[in-house]
């Protein structure tokens, strides 16, 4: 399906691909985009399009990064013409070209049932960027948890050195404090958690003895 045929003729909604990103997906701190330079230099769009179409094509890709869902464009050609500061009738004429400003942009179905335009290359770069962000977030979360447990272990060590060496105890105490919504882990709160751990272990020991009888 080409943009020219899809935009100038009605397309059944059920025939449209679903856009995988939603309006909730954000890259608020993403002030740059990955540009595959060699892919672009050897693309048909660069080699066969007019300089004007190439400039508008690149402009629209940048604009898509600030649209919602991210990476999409509206289907209204008059709106797009305003976004790139081109007279609407002239923009429509350019879009009718084989290598126009909307080359390889395709209609898609977004969340909420809205029909917008997507580009496979733009979408791929966004999915990779979001994946990298999630990976970095996971690494930061893991680092924060490690630091939290280290601080907790130091506090427990000042109260009960043997318990501080028990990894299972430290993690159980950490979970107990999280469940209690303890924002500031004072010594008194840690003592309560340690007492809860001891009670928990006594309860487990009692159950084992009962099963053994």
Give a written overview of the molecule.
The chain is mainly alpha-helical and 213 residues long. Helix content is 59%, strand content 5%. The chain has helices spanning 3-8, 37-41, 44-48, 51-64, 77-83, 88-95, 120-157, 161-164, 167-179, 187-212; strands spanning 105-109, 115-119. The protein has a two-stranded antiparallel ribbon with strand order 1-2. The longest helix is centred in the middle third of the chain and has 38 residues, at 120-157. The chain is elongated, with a radius of gyration of 29 Å. The chain starts with a helix and ends with a helix.
Mean pLDDT: 87
What's the count of strands? Answer: 2
Biggest sheet, open or closed, and with what strands and sense? 2 strands, antiparallel
Task: Identify the strand order in the major beta sheet.
Answer: 1-2
Count the DSSP helices. 10
Approximate strand percentage: under 5%
Distance between the termini: 74 Å
What are the low-pLDDT stretches, counting only 5+ consecutive residues below 50?
none
How much helix, percentage-wise, in residues?
55-70%
The H-and-E topology, N to C, reads as HHHHHHEEHHHH
Overall shape: it is elongated
Radius of gyration: 29 Å
- Strand-pairing-aware structural class: mainly alpha
Characterize the quaternary organization of these chains: single chain
Task: State the gist of this model.
With 213 residues, the protein is mainly alpha-helical.
What distinguishing features does this structure have?
single chain; 213 residues; mainly alpha; 59% helix
């Amino acid at each position: 399906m080409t943009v020219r045929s899809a935009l100038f003729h009605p397309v059944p909604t059920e025939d449209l691909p679903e856009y995988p990103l939603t309006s909730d997906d954000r890259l608020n701190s993403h002030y740059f985009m990955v540009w595959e330079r060699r892919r672009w230099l050897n693309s048909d769009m660069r080699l066969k399009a007019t300089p004007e179409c190439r400039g508008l094509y690149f402009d629209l890709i940048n604009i898509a990064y600030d649209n919602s869902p991210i990476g999409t464009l509206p289907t209204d050609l008059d709106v797009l013409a305003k976004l790139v500061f081109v007279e609407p009738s002239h923009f429509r004429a350019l879009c009718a070209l084989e290598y126009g400003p909307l080359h390889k942009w395709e209609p898609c179905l977004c969340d909420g049932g809205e029909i917008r335009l997507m580009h496979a290359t733009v979408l791929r770069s966004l999915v990779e960027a979001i994946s990298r962000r999630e990976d970095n977030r996971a690494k930061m979360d893991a680092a924060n948890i490690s630091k939290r447990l280290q601080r907790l272990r130091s506090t427990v060590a000042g109260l009960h050195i043997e318990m501080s060496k028990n990894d299972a105890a430290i993690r159980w105490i950490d979970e107990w404090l999280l469940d209690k919504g303890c924002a500031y882990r004072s010594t008194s709160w840690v003592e309560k958690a340690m007492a809860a751990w001891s009670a928990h272990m006594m309860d487990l020991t009692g159950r084992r003895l009962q099963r053994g009888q």
